[in-house]
Design goal:
heterodimer, A: mainly alpha, globular, B: alpha+beta
């Protein structure tokens, strides 16, 4: 009896240590080794150091030569890394500010007015999140490029040249503004809803006009929420790889592109390591800042009954807000439409509309790129399985066994930009004893780690919904904790797990930076195929593949939503 | 079936003492209630027996077996939870069959292990064996729920869920049945019905039962013996009647039923051997309780005082003069608040049809048997 108990107890704790080991090998060691490389300036083989005396000696040798030179030289005159960092910071700040300003009226309209068509606009706001940014970027080229249809329209009204240069900082900023704004919108809507209505009424009672009330009472109360989403947008923009890789001109250095070129183009390990460390520090700092802001925001958020809010129904305001919201939310739809038109065009660029229509591009992708579609499915499927297993047990250990260590480790990926994770993994697993660079396994692991915090969030919430006494009941009826987890907790968590798993699948199919950096030719997924087609100038097939990605994403997301809605119990 | 013995149980949670030196012996087949206000340690005690809490020190025996090191799933304790904790994804039948399936999984051969696990994961896979089927049917018939075997727990009423939980715990033929505030989620009427149901089922099965409750009425009406707990300690373990008539402390007297409680000073012992106690300014009460203390607490139950509008019949009992301040009609009884000097007495009298309710201001005599004046 006793023996049986011990063996099961060990089964669970062994599992826990295996998960720790996974994060240790594939997250902590790579990040640490990147840090070492940035100081030594030479590749460091950490795992090799423990398996071979020779490598160990050479590692010691390298470590003795550590210096901060790589970092100090950044600040010397004309260093391209420094320029890249500054440009990236500028980009992030610009996008964060612009998004905030652009979204403010929309958030207000959603939270506090009787604006018509709210559900319609809400649906439009999901479009930007469906499209991978490098596809959105190409869509902007299709619209505003030299032969873009907007440019053509502009010409037909007598304009000359282009409205603006898409392949520039401005182009990148605009794409990111139009495709990242939903990240800020919903938190801001929540912030506006939270602000205490009674305070506003008090202000109006005291004779204040409504715009004055808005500026002096409503807005200040919503400020923490707004600042927090601003910081979030900064991090998203700073870490985004898809937009700059398509739109950044040769003379515009951005840190993500720079580090990609260093590792993929010049195999400059030291340089890419330094850039990765800088990226991590910036992302971590802003993440910490955002947490700080949210922390101070705990006033008045939780009250039993939602206070009934008086919604603004001023006619002029409503008309203005409706038109404005439509303009902002309609741009992504136009972009998507442009990609679609391009995917069925024989040629496009001489007039505002394509010269003719054809389905040949779809035939091409299904005949020539069938392998990419298959790869995407296999990779996403593999990631799904690995994510489900790890995140289910992580949430079990965190929620039921109070393991704060696992909670912390598994949320580290939140602050690691995709490109940084990719570079760290490439460098760490490039040689024996664990040689994984260029294999599908490393790709799957990278996807899994990158999406882990989101997956865990979804499994954790369904785990928390299961009361502890349900598990205790199973145990009192004779089941060991392991069997109880398998027969009771598992089935109850299933809807949450399924929904989370589908979303993991979706994000893997969309994932750009990791795919571009890590995918070997044999295992190129759809997103990489689109990317390579764009680079080769095969725009029409790229668009056809992009539409396929978008369709798959839409279907799967609808499915995930249905599953969470249909929760049985 | 088994007795339960708890020896010197201590439990500490990061420095806070939850249980202090709790020792209990629960006889085989006994219905034993743990009674006390929230935070008194009654639930912790029961969870220690169930194996969900590990005591800081002390021993627990179920039958003759020391279960200190036995994990919860091998203690053979059937448990009914406050929230019933039915498995929401399994229907009534599968809920009740759970423990039998688990047993088959552990004790069966490889084939049985596989088919049982498959069946538990998806009830359409494989079938429960005939013995299990029969046991579950019997258990459900026993709690009169045979006709609801295919329902999901969410489709049942509170009382029905309660009975499923009971059947689920009983079908494994546990050594002890543990019930954690099982009636607190039911409305008052249903609670009274379930009290009787649970008691009857317990009597029929003859199973040793530990019942945790904060409701003294529940404990008194159902249990063979009651342990009153307070601040992590046992205060008194006794039969309901003894608990009521001879409370060991003021806390017990106060917690179990309502009481008149006064501070008094012992004046001496009279020739009849009764203790004479001064209460308030100038009232004297005689009590048959021996006491060696000088300052005592006097406890008198409201219904052990008799009230007379005119002269009280002459006998050897305490007589006090008072005035009615408030009369409250409670249905079967009338509660009088009577002022005696600066003291107030609560007096319960049986309401008889036709007899009048005395109005406020009526001068009355109170008669109290010295046997029922508890001095502590």
């Amino acid at each position: 009896m006793m023996k049986r108990f011990l063996s099961q107890l060990n089964g669970l704790s062994v599992l826990k240590w295996l998960i720790y080991l996974f994060f240790f090998i594939f997250l902590l060691v790579p990040l640490f080794s990147i840090l070492l490389v940035s100081f030594t300036g030479q590749p460091v083989n950490i795992f090799g150091s423990f398996s071979s005396q020779k490598i160990f000696n050479s590692t010691i040798q390298k470590l003795s030569n550590m210096s901060v030179e790589a970092y100090t030289s950044i600040f010397s005159e004309g260093n391209s890394y420094f320029a890249a960092l500054i440009n990236s910071l500028e980009l992030g700040t610009g996008v964060a500010v612009l998004v905030t300003l652009a979204v403010l009226p929309i958030a207000y309209a959603f939270a506090r007015t009787k604006m018509p068509f709210k559900p319609f606009f809400a649906a439009l706001c999901t479009i930007p999140l469906i499209m991978p940014t490098f596809i959105s970027s190409h869509a902007f080229v299709l619209m505003f490029g030299k032969t873009g249809w907007v440019t053509q329209l502009y010409h037909s009204f007598g304009g000359e040249g282009v409205l603006f240069d898409v392949q520039s900082m401005l182009g990148i900023v605009l794409v990111q503004v139009f495709f990242f704004f939903p990240y800020a919108l919903w938190p801001m809507v929540a912030a506006f809803k939270i602000s205490d209505v009674t305070l506003e009424e008090a202000s109006q009672n005291l004779g204040a006009r409504s715009w004055y009330t808005f500026m002096r009472v409503t807005l200040p109360l919503a400020v923490p929420g707004i600042v927090s989403s601003m910081l979030l947008i900064f991090t998203v923009s700073f870490s985004d790889f898809g937009t700059p890789i398509i739109l950044a001109p040769k003379d515009l250095n951005l840190i993500v592109v720079e580090s990609y070129r260093e590792i993929a183009g010049f195999f400059n390990w030291a340089g890419s390591a330094v850039l990765t460390v800088i990226m991590l520090i910036v992302a971590a700092f802003f993440f910490w800042l955002q947490r700080l802001v949210i922390k101070g925001r705990e006033y008045g958020t939780i009250s039993g009954k939602p206070t009934k809010q008086k919604l603004n129904d001023h006619k002029g305001t409503l008309v203005g807000l409706t038109i404005y919201t439509f303009l902002i939310t309609f741009v992504p739809i136009l972009a998507m439409g442009s990609v679609f038109l391009s995917s069925i065009a024989t040629t496009w660029g001489h007039h505002a509309l394509p010269d003719g229509y054809t389905l040949d591009h779809y035939k091409t992708i299904f005949s020539l790129s069938g392998k990419n579609i298959w790869n995407s499915m296999v990779l996403a499927g593999g990631t799904l399985v690995l994510s489900v297993v790890i995140s289910t047990f992580v949430s079990y250990f965190v929620v039921r066994r109070g393991s704060s260590g696992l909670d912390f480790v598994s949320s580290i990926p939140l602050i690691v930009p995709g490109i940084a994770l990719g570079i760290a993994l490439i460098q760490t697993f490039n040689t024996a004893p664990i040689h994984l660079t260029g294999t599908a396994i490393l790709l799957i692991i990278a996807y899994t780690i990158r999406r882990m915090p989101y997956m865990i969030r979804s499994t954790m919430s369904s785990m928390m919904a299961i009361r502890k006494d349900i598990e205790e009941a199973a145990v009192s009826l004779g089941a060991s904790t392991l069997i109880a987890a398998l027969t009771v907790i598992g089935p109850l968590m299933l809807p949450g797990i399924a929904a989370g798993a589908i979303l993991v699948f979706v994000t893997v199919i969309k994932e750009t930076s990791i795919s571009i950096l890590l995918a070997p030719t044999d295992w190129a997924p759809m997103s990489l195929a689109v990317f390579q087609n764009l680079l080769r100038g095969e725009y029409y097939t790229a668009c056809a593949m992009a539409i396929l990605i978008i369709v798959i994403v839409i279907i799967l997301q609808a499915l995930a939503k249905k599953i969470t809605k249909d929760q049985l119990y | 079936m088994g007795s339960v013995k708890i020896e010197n149980l201590h439990k500490q949670y990061n420095g806070n003492t939850a249980l202090e030196d709790v020792s209990l012996e629960i006889r085989e087949g006994e219905f034993f209630a743990l009674l006390g206000p929230s935070g008194c340690g009654k639930t912790t005690t029961m969870r220690c027996v169930a194996g969900f809490e590990t005591p800081t020190s002390g021993n627990i025996y179920i039958g003759d077996r020391n279960v200190n090191l036995v994990p919860a799933n091998q203690r053979n304790c059937g448990m009914v939870f406050q929230s019933y904790a039915l498995f929401p994804h399994l229907n009534v039948f599968e809920n009740v069959a759970y423990s039998l399936n688990i047993r088959r999984f552990y004790e069966g051969g490889l084939g049985a292990k596989f088919t049982t696990l498959a069946h538990m994961l998806n009830r359409k896979l494989g079938k429960v064996d005939r013995v299990t089927e029969q046991k579950v049917r019997d258990a459900l018939d026993f709690v009169e729920l045979g006709h609801l075997a295919d329902r999901l727990p969410g489709q049942l009423s509170g009382g029905q869920q309660q009975r499923v939980a009971l059947a689920r715990a009983l079908v494994m033929e546990p050594a002890v049945l543990l019930m954690d505030e099982p009636l607190s989620n039911l409305d008052k009427k249903l609670r009274n019905v379930m009290r009787v149901t649970i008691r009857q089922i317990q009597q029929k099965v003859g199973i040793t039962t530990i019942f945790v409750t904060h409701d003294q009425e529940e404990a008194m009406s159902m249990a063979d013996r009651v342990a009153v707990m307070h601040g992590g300690r046992l205060v008194q373990v006794d039969t309901p009647t003894a608990l009521y008539s001879n409370p060991a402390t003021k806390f017990v007297a106060d917690f179990v039923g309502s009481s008149n409680i006064y501070n008094g000073t012992v004046k001496g012992v009279n020739e009849a051997g009764e203790t004479v106690i001064q209460v308030g300014q100038n009232q004297q009460l005689r009590s048959t309780y021996p006491t060696s203390k000088k300052d005592v607490e006097i406890i008198i139950r409201p219904e052990s005082i008799r009230l007379f509008a005119g002269e009280a019949p002459a006998n050897e009992e305490n007589i006090l003069d008072g005035t009615i301040e408030l009369s409250t009609y409670l249905g079967p009884t009338i509660r009088y608040d009577v002022k005696v000097g600066e003291l107030r007495f609560e007096v319960d009298t049986v309401f008889e049809a036709g007899s009048p309710i005395l109005p406020s201001g009526t001068a009355v005599k109170l008669q109290i048997d010295p046997n029922r004046v508890v001095a502590l």
